[in-house]
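S1.2 Input.
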Amino acid sequence: GRVHARLAAAAPEIELVAVVDPVESGRVALAEETETKALADYRQVIDDVDAAIVATPTTTHHAIGCDLLEAGLHLLVEKPLAATAAEATALVATAEQHECILQVGHVERFNPGLRAVEHELSDPKFIEATRLSGYPFRSTDIGVVLDLMIHDLEIVLSLARSPVVGVEALGMAVFGRYEDMASARLTFASGCVAQLTASRVSYEMRRAMHVFTSRAHAAIDFAAGTASLVKPRGDVLRRTFEFGSLSADDVDHWKQHLYDDVLARTNFAPEKVNAIAEEQREFVASVRGKSRVRVDGAAGRDAVAVAETILAKIADHNWDGDATGRRGPLAMPALPILP
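S1.3 Output.
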């Protein structure tokens, strides 16, 4: 919320009317920094604004979002759109009923690394996504699937453009009752398979994705905002390039030049951008009717729906192989002092 407020205050196309926070010290300090009003309740500002950014705990998105949409406000709602698929569906329906823009803050869709190669990623066949971070000490009302994995879920759905027909998943809680580590495997009707891993208790920081299509492979580093693209030569794609038919001299040549000529790689290091600022600019442009948002309410809803299925699979996972064993994310129960 603080990041959104600071960027909105600095954007020439936005007039920041107020910041709303039930915590007095937080709202007063931020209002002073951004030179705007500090309010304790969002209902106090409804009549004074055209649009709102909802960056509140996930469990409050549905109630706050529906109130604002019913008042005719356009919304940018931070990801995930809602805590459940039913709540997300209600938000989408309310936005449609009142003809309001509903954008979801899946900010990685504005990442320059992804944008540099996404036009080459139609009809993917295998996608591998890894998202690792340390414990954030926020979003404790949800687990890592809705907190972190949801980023990659939405991107995978936007690339696959096919119904999900199979889900396998497991997760483990470390702090509290929600999963802090999770792994999911999705199968699509198109034959595409996606493997997603997320952790918010990792010693390693990593946000990366590999996408394999029939004609190319892309490696995207979301943290660095960079990407690389490998497009195999035509004879490799046609299966007519075979090492078994090469002479010894040819083999020696390709040992030196295989990755230059046959599996050539192009690296992309686009100019860095503030993805949240880009997201806000697209939101404003869509409110003014100049463009469409990249991640609308329907896309956000679909990501939540798949996440809900993953969470159901995590809850059903049996760690001990019998009906009385440990289930769900709580794989590490407190051990008795005496056996």
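S1.4 Remarks. The mean pLDDT is 93.
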